[in-house]
Amino acid sequence: SQQGEEDPQALSIQEGENATMNCSYKTSINNLQWYRQNSGRGLVHLILIRSNEREKHSGRLRVTLDTSKKSSSLLITASRAADTASYFCAHLSNDYKLSFGAGTTVTVRA
Amino acid sequence: SAVISQKPSRDICQRGTSLTIQCQVDSQVTMMFWYRQQPGQSLTLIATANQGSEATYESGFVIDKFPISRPNLTFSTLTVSNMSPEDSSIYLCSVEWQGDNSTDTQYFGPGTRLTVL
């Protein structure tokens, strides 16, 4: 499965600030999903955006998708210490395989 | 969403031995997958566990090294055979779940952290 790229690799912000991370991919996609992983544990599914959608919100999360640029972004608003985690994007290609980006490690300072 | 459990949650094994990891889902699902996450890395798909037939392996992964069973629609096992320290990773199972919106969401188990000495 072809991995995508994510940037930044790491992000350190103050509690209350917003965190933005970006993801790029190379193939055609069915949808793109964002996950959170705390300290090497299992992945928690955050949000899914379909290929025909441009923006989606869920609580403090906002995801955008630009299929012409093959990129997506995840915005976490009003960050909290509990948001400290690694965030991964994963795109579902037309062969129904999920390919993960390299991940962004977010540290929220109290 | 589906609730997925894995056993064991972690293990420390000697090189040359094998470990079987179990994945249990609380609902019947068609698609189950196994992933590997090497230290500090992202997830890589090992194989798709097919019910009633042989698993479909991704490039770089072979059945002799990672035999997979899928006896029914709620359970699968992954065996890591003849382990070496390079097999030290987190192994995760996932299932594809089609909710009300019929979207192909994948949910993951808590993972099995394997250390090979």
Classification by helices and strands of chain A = mainly beta
Low-confidence stretches of chain B: none
Show the largest interface: A-B, 25 and 25 residues
Quick one: overall form of chain A? globular
> What's the SSE pattern of chain A?
EEEEEEEEEEE
Oligomer: heterodimer
Radius of gyration of chain B: 14 Å
What distance separates the N and C termini of chain A?
A: 38 Å
Number-wise, the strands of chain A total 11
* Mean of all residue-level pLDDT scores of chain A: 92
Amount of helix of chain B? under 10%
Description:
The complex is a heterodimer of chains A (about 110) and B (about 120). Chain A is mostly beta strands. Helix content of chain A is about 0%, strand content about 60%. Chain A is globular and about 40 Å long. The N and C termini of chain A lie far apart (about 40 Å). The relative contact order of chain A is 0.36. Chain B has about 120 residues and is mainly beta. Chain B has no helices and eleven strands. In chain B, strands 2, 4, 5, 6, 9, 10 and 11 form a seven-stranded mixed beta sheet that branches. In chain B, strand 9 and strand 10 form a beta hairpin. The relative contact order of chain B is 0.33. The model of chain B has no long low-confidence stretch (mean pLDDT about 95). The chains are: A mainly beta (about 110), B mainly beta (about 120). Chains A and B meet through strand 4, strand 5, strand 9 and strand 10 of A and strand 5, strand 9 and strand 10 of B.
Task: Write the topology of this structure.
The complex is a heterodimer of chains A (110) and B (117).
Chain A: E1 5-7, E2 10-14, E3 19-24, E4 29-37, E5 43-50, E6 55-58, E7 61-66, E8 71-76, E9 85-93, E10 98-100, E11 104-109
Parallel strand pairs in A: 2-11
Antiparallel strand pairs in A: 1-3, 3-8, 4-5, 4-9, 6-7, 7-8, 9-10, 9-11
Chain B: E1 4-7, E2 10-13, E3 19-25, E4 32-37, E5 43-49, E6 56-57, E7 68-72, E8 75-80, E9 89-98, E10 104-108, E11 112-116
Parallel strand pairs in B: 2-11
Antiparallel strand pairs in B: 1-3, 3-8, 4-5, 4-9, 5-6, 7-8, 9-10, 9-11
